[in-house]
Amino acid sequence: MPASDANAPHTCDEDVSGLAQRQGQECFEIVCIGSGGGPDETNLSCYLLKPSSQRWEDGCIALDAGSGLGALTNRLAASPSLLSALSPSSYTKHLQPAQVASHIFTHLHDYLLTHSHLDHIAALPLNSSFSLGPGTLWPRLASWEDEGLMRLVELAPLTRHTLHPHTLSAEAYPISHGAHPSYTSPSVPQPQLSPSPSAAAASPGLETRVYESTAYFINASDRSFLFWGDVEPDALSSSPRNRRVWEECARRFVDGRLNWVWLECSYTDDRLDHLLYGHLTPTHLIRELQTLAALVTARRYTSTKTRTTCSLRPLRGLTLAIIHIKESPIAGAGVTAAQVMRELRALGERAGLGVEWKMVEPGERIVF
């Protein structure tokens, strides 16, 4: 650009078209077994993930494990073609939904758990093949030792870990999920928290004040997406850790390597802040996205050294997949979700973010 034009603004149309071109074809395929945050136990957080170019029999992972075999069976009964990338062999063509679900689970190699609340792990003990011995309340589902059918592995924060299938990898970012009850209700007996060494290193001195959750960057080749566990807004947190995640998200988005973010929005805006229990509402979610938008704008300005009208719609080209909505049985099915999405779209438009909204539903297959 000539020196005389150094301060001339340019539009982000070229940036967005370049983003689409760099991202190329779809990379990830997710089947949503459950997307809710309760109280309906038939629709709890669990997402099957595989590379879009591979079959389910080549291996898959699960993001959280609130729902499991029974929920997948119900999804397949309602939509037999849900798992379209299954092998066309006679072994899978003529099976009942429960048999197909079991077939898929035999190729499920890794669970990425965001945190240990029951709506995110309930299916693990239920789907365990271990028998309960006399006097025991829990199967030997996972252990810190390399034994049994499953092994519990703590992922070191901010480090890339290879998954199975090996074309996938993940990086874990510790985030905060609300104050621990022992800090708000000292009279209530609470188990002693034992923060892991890696968590303590990532956030020294903060671990015992909040429940810890996780945000994952999932990678395939040079593409990635961001998947948040339950999270509270930095504005309300005693241990704010979201900005670090947004900084990495902004870097990948501007570089054209990320265009999907999966994020919870549990309640509508009429929920009071002290009753959020470590969750987001539309207003708080938009404020978090404004942090991301500011980081994206700053990074684009740094890279181009020019003023840009992208600041008007800085997140154009980014899809926000909304998950973990807590439906009200009294209000009726889908009422809370519809209100959450109305509020998000109105607030997002008012903020001029340019983001595209997607409400994730159970039994849905998403390729991106």
- The class by helix and strand makeup works out as alpha/beta
Order of helices and strands: HEEEHHHEHHEEHHEEHEHEHEE
Strand content: 15-25%
| Gap from first CA to last CA | 35 Å
**Low-confidence segments:** 1-10, 184-208
Taken from the alpha-carbon principal axes, the silhouette is globular
The tally of helices reads 11
Rg for CA atoms: 21 Å
Helix content: 25-40%
Number of strand segments: 12
**Mean pLDDT across all residues, rounded?**
83
Specify the biggest β-sheet. 7 strands, mixed
Spatial order of strands in the largest sheet: 5-6-7-8-9-10-11
How would you explain this protein's 3D organization?
29% of the residues lie in helices and 21% in strands. With 368 residues, the protein is an alpha/beta fold. The protein has a seven-stranded mixed sheet. Helix 2 packs across helix 4, helix 9 packs across helix 10 (282-304) and helix 10 (282-304) runs parallel beside helix 11. The longest helix has 23 residues, at 282-304. The relative contact order is 0.15.
Summary of the model, kept short:
With 368 residues, this protein is of the alpha/beta class. It is built from 11 helices and 12 strands.
Task: For this entry, give a set of tags.
single chain; 368 residues; alpha/beta; seven-stranded mixed sheet; five-stranded mixed sheet; 29% helix; globular; disordered N terminus
Q: What secondary-structure arrangement, pairings included, does this model have?
A:
Blueprint: H1 13-23, E1 28-37, E2 44-51, E3 60-63, H2 69-78, H3 90-93, H4 97-105, E4 108-112, H5 118-121, H6 123-126, E5 161-162, E6 168-179, H7 181-184, H8 197-202, E7 210-220, E8 223-228, H9 242-254, E9 258-264, H10 282-304, E10 319-323, H11 335-351, E11 356-359, E12 365-367
Parallel strand pairs: 3-4, 8-9, 9-10, 10-11
Antiparallel strand pairs: 1-2, 1-12, 2-3, 5-6, 6-7, 7-8
Helix pairs in contact: 2-4, 9-10, 10-11
